[in-house]
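#dry-run=false #mode=assembly
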Amino acid sequence: MLKRFSISLEEELLEQFDAYIRERGYVNRSEAVRDLIRKEFIHEEWEQDGDVVGVVTLVYNHHQSQLQEKITEIQHDYYTLITSTTHVHMDHHNCLEVIIVKGRASRIKELAEKMIALRGVKNGKLTMTSTGHHLH
Ligand code: NI
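#status=ok
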């Protein structure tokens, strides 16, 4: 059920907010405020080391010696956190791997950092997401 409440803002801050939501294509302020609140709750869950979900994205050169083996080895060390992995051969040299993870935030960060730090990984990113509610 939706509930209404009103917010008082300085004119300048409201103008900035309206510009922000226009750029992002929001149709109204309410949806933008809801998203900002959810984003903050997700941030909190990660900060408090809660159970979260995330996506690790890796772009790497599979010709790099031992890299594929190392990535697989690390994933097996943390297999309980990994929900699924998708591998895409981007071109002759490069692979994209997308790993969906679920579990304790600190362990997920550890797993992501280990893979991202490997030599030959050109671009690595952990997208921290969640539901904004505690996962059970
Ligand atoms: Ni590949």
